[in-house]
């Protein structure tokens, strides 16, 4: 079954990259960094790595065996020194609850916390579904919303909550994924449908509690999620145009412009993005 899903996702990825990668995207006035300049900046940061204030957790996306989490790690790690970095993939996880359990277990096994209720304070960089996993794990488990596979029951209360300081998300379906219906065989995809009970509950918690700082990134022509869905209401989206050979969603985790800006923030250096952020343009 997993081989079938992987093959199906590979075909879908190829088709969407072809559809989305036929022309260069627009330039964002509030994020004018070019791909060429971003690659140069990444080289400069790698030549002068710096420690960052907190351990860094890197989270992969839906049905990803580790390509996105390890790819992000390979781009981010050279610019950081003396700081633990943990990359986690969620292929095979059947629910957000299961994914959150995996996340906390891996973090606790490497950097245990003395606090019985929460982990050590961390920063998180997450691609696609990984951003929702981080948001879910940041809620105390006894208050966490139900997911499709535990609907009507209480999520495990033995798990610590993920203590996030800063969350950086890349193409995360904060308001749902436009094509989530294609993956309806999977409970995670059903929870990522626009206006799902799960996402509504996540947003209610986010608006009521200041658990972490959120910075959302997107690439235009994201046919999987929809760039307009990549940030919660009232949170700006820091968007870039698609690259010449990439679609909007796939490979956005490898976009040097986004990675360079995230690294600037992690290293407490001036960001390339400015405020107010330019609105996501209509298609």
Automatic annotation (TrEMBL):
Residues 101-178 form the DUF676 domain. InterPro entries: AB_hydrolase_fold, DUF676_lipase-like. PROSITE patterns: PROKAR_LIPOPROTEIN. Gene3D superfamilies: alpha/beta hydrolase (3.40.50.1820). This is DUF676 domain-containing protein.
């Amino acid at each position: 079954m997993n081989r079938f899903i992987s093959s199906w996702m590979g075909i879908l990825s190829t088709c969407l990259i072809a559809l989305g990668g036929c022309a260069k995207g627009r330039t964002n006035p509030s994020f004018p960094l070019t791909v060429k300049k971003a690659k140069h900046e990444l080289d400069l940061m790698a030549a002068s790595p710096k420690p960052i204030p907190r351990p860094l957790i890197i989270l992969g996306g839906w049905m990803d065996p580790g390509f996105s989490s390890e790819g992000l790690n390979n781009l981010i790690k050279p610019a950081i020194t003396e700081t633990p970095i943990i990359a986690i993939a969620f292929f095979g996880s059947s629910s957000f609850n299961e994914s959150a359990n995996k996340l906390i277990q891996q973090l606790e096994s490497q950097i245990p916390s003395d606090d019985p209720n929460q982990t050590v304070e961390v920063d998180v960089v997450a691609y696609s579904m990984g951003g929702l996993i981080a948001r879910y794990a940041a809620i105390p488990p006894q208050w966490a919303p139900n997911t499709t596979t535990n609907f009507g029951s209480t999520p495990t209360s033995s798990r610590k909550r993920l203590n996030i300081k800063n969350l950086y998300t890349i193409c995360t379906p904060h308001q749902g994924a436009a094509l989530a219906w294609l993956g309806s065989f999977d409970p995670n995809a059903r929870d990522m449908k626009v206006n799902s009970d799960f996402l509504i509950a996540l947003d209610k918690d986010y608006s009521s509690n200041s658990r972490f700082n959120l910075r959302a990134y997107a690439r235009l022509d994201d046919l999987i999620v929809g760039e307009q869905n990549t940030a919660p209401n009232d949170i700006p989206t820091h968007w870039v145009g698609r690259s010449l050979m990439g679609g909007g969603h796939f490979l956005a985790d490898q976009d040097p412009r986004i990675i360079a800006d995230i690294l600037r923030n992690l290293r407490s250096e001036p960001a390339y993005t400015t405020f107010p952020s330019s609105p996501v343009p209509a298609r």
